[in-house]
Amino acid sequence: MKNFKMAVIFAMVLSVLTADLVAQAQRGQPGGPMGGPSSLDSTWAALAFEVKVTNATLDRLRPHFEVAWQQKARAIRESAGGFQGFAGRMQKIRDDLNETLKTVLTAEDARKLANWQASRPPMGPPPEAFPGGRRMGGPGGSGSSPSGNPPLAKDDAEKRILEAADQVTRLASVPMEDGRMIRLLAEAIGAKNAVEIGTSTGYSGLWFALALRRTGGKLTTFEIDAGTAATARENFRKGGVERLVTVMVGDAHKTVESLNGPIDMVLIDADKEGYVDYLEKTLPLVRPGGLILAHNVNMGMVAEGYVKRVTSDPDLETMFYMDGGGLSVTLKKR
């Protein structure tokens, strides 16, 4: 009970701080390139897909983000059972990365990133602020604090997967918070046939595997880049789950047509402009009671195609989990 109360208090404080940071960004007050609420993963994804910095710039930034991700994972592990110092450590990580961004980004890229940060919806509005959908989580709209209960391995096989995930070089991947939600949902619905569009380096696939090894399921994951797919296969091998995962290389807009149903769960985490197409091609194959998840999605995008599609269909029920990079969770009603 004591830990639960501390978690609630921490989530409330985090929500207030985040809302204040967003308000500062919207007023044009200084906060740095990472002054808003986005996670390290969301900022990386924004640089790659929203700001669209050059590959050379991403190559210069990648080692710094890798260090930040490792420091964050370490902070989460070492903060188990208590919250003192976690916020300070995360602020130090952000500050260090901000200094790098200031020296690497062009003035135009820095401006675009700042505009993207300011456009991120603040945490904490009531459910009615989100037409057609609701947010999942506790006070302020966020779920349990990521520092409150780090993932614990039940057995050696699970430990191996978690260790492999901890070592993955994450390229526009989901954050740990979203990975844990993927595992939770996949295992809860007893997923046998899971599909992922956007393998990247295999981080989210490893979270799927944590569930699928228990449910007896398999994952089919789609990646457009052959080199990235090879990296993912190696990460699956390190986690000991290569027999659970089939990696398909090519344009997923075409290759997903090879899928067969029924599908229990789909994760869409690829080119944002293609989300609706991916949805339309997989939804007919998803079983009633199955789930469709989409990453880097929030109700601030209510006017955009994907969110409008999943929140205006009476056959679907959609909620938004905002602890990580923004994850929509859609149920195909029975």
Give me some keywords for this one.
about 325 residues; alpha/beta; Rossmann fold; 2 domains; eight-stranded mixed β-sheet; 12 helices; disordered N terminus
The global form is globular
CATH topology of the largest domain: Rossmann fold
Helical fraction:
40-55%
- Overall pLDDT: 76
First and last CA, distance: 36 Å
Radius of gyration: 19 Å
Q: State which percent range the strand residues make up.
A: 5-15%
> What is the β-strand count?
8
**What would you say the CATH architecture of the largest domain is?**
3-Layer(aba) Sandwich
Secondary-structure element string: HHHHHEHHEHEHEHEHEHEE
Count of runs of 4 or more consecutive helical residues: 12
For the largest sheet, list the strands in their spatial order. 1-7-8-6-5-2-3-4
How can the largest sheet be summarized?
8 strands, mixed
Poorly predicted segments: 1-38, 122-148
Query: What is the CATH homology-level superfamily of the largest domain?
Result: Vaccinia Virus protein VP39
Estimated structural class: alpha/beta
Number of domains: 2
CATH class of the largest domain: Alpha Beta
Please describe what this structure looks like:
Helix 8 (203-215) links the parallel strand 2 and strand 3 (218-223). This protein is of the alpha/beta class and 334 residues long. Strands 1-7-8-6-5-2-3-4 form an eight-stranded mixed sheet, sandwiched between helices. The two termini are 36 Å apart. The chain has helices at residues 2-27, 40-50, 55-78, 86-104, 107-119, 156-167, 176-188, 203-215, 226-239, 252-255, 275-282, 305-311, and strands at 134-136, 193-197, 218-223, 245-249, 263-268, 286-295, 316-321, 327-332. The longest helix has 26 residues, at 2-27. It has two domains: 2-119, no CATH class; 151-332, Rossmann fold (3-Layer(aba) Sandwich), CATH 3.40.50.150.
